[in-house]
UniProtKB/TrEMBL annotation:
This is ABC transporter permease. It is found in: Cell membrane. Residues 109-463 form the ABC transmembrane type-1 domain. Residues 1-19 have a biased composition (Basic and acidic residues). It is a multi-pass membrane protein.
Length: 473
């Protein structure tokens, strides 16, 4: 019987023929599907390439900007740090060794270390305490707004404000006005710090040691002339000076301003237009010991009664002329760095409070309520539950503040006066002063900038890794 394949057009003939060829012929059942898959993959690849190209085009301006503002300055600073001040001679690592030998740079490095240790710790602690407390305040939103407002003020403006607030003159510096006011409430200020005795008119001595007369006896009346008091510094209740009448068993006299406004007047004599100095302390001294004391009246007159017969000296003690309390020297060499850190705290406390407050709002309330049900007090809840749960947020805030503190410049440069600028310098201000502020050594300044970059980069890397870990969760 003839069993050759029927190719006369029967429907199964083509299928039987293809199957008989087997897989090696490339015309099996899967060849059509593979061809169709390749045809569909090509448009997908082309679409993916187009999307990537479009993304690169959109990112190109940002990459160019980062290259111009970040990458190029970093590379240029590294290269410039290897040359001398003129930029013409290659010196290798000499600028870096000079940093180690330069006392001003070492002081700036030490101040930067103080900033890194003190400011972030205080800000994180203050932010945590304020964030917890504001949860229990009725007007929490308004309170947070007030504390966050300094963030809207530039460091330059904040520096000018605190430079004025730290002025030592109580008439200009608000902090010293408060300090002097509190001090004078408990210790009476000296009435006439600028007064001095009229020379050659019966008084000898100095303001630091006090003034004294020659020997006098009870029943005498003595005039004690002083100068050096501005007319505006004379108390408003001062009256025209007069010498009281002498009295038996008493020493009397007047302490007055020996100055006649305008013309006229006789030195050492009480004239009609001269005023007494009220509130001046006068002592009667015998054998080196004060035996009687009084204060002058509004017209400068005084009287020491009950004195035995004998010789005395009238003494005007140095306390009458001691310089008044001038307040705290906030911008002196010893306090300028803490003063600038105080201004920094004023600006950044709201920032740390708001960030920590946001983390506090995200805490699971059921955990806190469970602790309260179990009998834990608020202190235990804060220390054992709230702080551990907020540890990631506190770490991010702390590291962010460390990075910011390392770059602080404006406040230090504006607040610290010229004579103590070196005492307050940090790495950023030292870098600027060396490069542009008179040092004109951009080689050393570039080396300082590289050092500053190396100190900031680890904190930045740590923060970025924490953000990525947080995002992966």
């Amino acid at each position: 019987m003839d069993r050759r394949p029927d190719t006369t057009g029967r429907p199964g003939a083509a299928r039987d023929s293809d199957a008989a060829r087997g897989p090696g012929t490339g015309r099996g059942p899967g060849s059509g599907r593979r061809a169709a898959g390749r045809g569909a993959a090509d448009p997908r690849r082309r679409a993916l390439r187009r999307r990537r190209l479009l993304g690169a085009l959109f990112a190109l301006p940002a990459l160019l900007l980062l290259g111009a503002l970040v990458a190029y300055p970093v590379v240029f600073s590294v290269l410039r740090s290897l040359f001398d001040a003129t930029g013409d001679r290659f010196v290798g690592a000499d600028n870096y060794t000079e940093m180690v030998r330069d006392p001003a740079t070492l002081k700036a490095l030490r101040n930067s270390a103080v900033w890194v240790v003190v400011a972030p710790v205080l800000l994180t602690g203050l932010g945590l305490v304020l964030a917890v407390l504001t949860e229990r305040v009725r007007w929490a939103t308004a309170f947070k707004l007030v504390l966050f407002l300094p963030m809207a003020v530039s460091f330059l403006a904040a520096g000018i404000v605190f430079r004025l607030a730290y002025e030592q003159d109580p008439d200009r510096g608000v902090l010293n006005a408060v300090v002097v006011g509190v001090h004078d409430a408990f210790a009476e200020p000296s009435p006439y710090p600028t007064a001095r005795a009229r020379e050659g008119k019966g008084l000898t001595g100095t303001p630091a040691g006090g003034y004294a007369t020659g020997e006098v006896r009870p029943g005498s009346a003595v005039a004690l002339p002083f100068v050096g008091v501005a007319p505006g510094a004379v108390p408003g209740d001062a009256e025209r000076a007069r010498v009281p009448e002498s009295a038996p068993g008493a020493l009397s006299g007047t302490v007055y301003l020996d100055f006649t406004p305008g013309a006229g007047g006789r030195p050492g004599a009480v004239d009609a237009r001269e005023k007494g100095l009220p509130g001046m302390t006068v002592e009667a001294v015998r054998d080196g010991r004060a035996v009687a004391e009084t204060r002058t009246a509004a017209d400068g007159s005084f009287r020491l009664d009950g004195l035995a017969e004998g010789s005395y000296r009238l003494r005007v003690p140095a306390g009458n002329f001691a310089a008044g309390y001038g307040g705290v020297d906030w911008l002196g060499p010893s306090l300028v760095t803490p003063a600038v850190i105080g201004a920094y705290l004023w600006v950044w406390t709201g920032f740390s409070m708001v960030l920590i407050g946001a983390g506090l709002a995200a805490l699971p309330r059921d955990v806190l309520e469970a602790a309260r049900v179990d009998g834990a007090n608020e202190r235990q809840i804060f220390r054992r539950i709230t702080v551990p749960l907020l540890a990631p947020v506190l770490t991010v805030v702390f590291v962010t503040l460390v990075i910011n503190v390392m770059k602080v410049f404006d406040l230090v440069y504006v607040i610290a006066p010229g004579p103590v600028q070196e005492e307050a310098n940090v790495l950023a201000t030292r870098m600027w002063l060396v490069s542009f502020g008179g040092g004109n050594d951009q080689g050393l300044g570039s080396a300082l900038s590289v050092l500053l970059l190396l100190l900031v980069v680890p904190a930045m890397v740590f923060n970025i890794r924490r953000f990525r870990k947080g995002g992966s969760r």
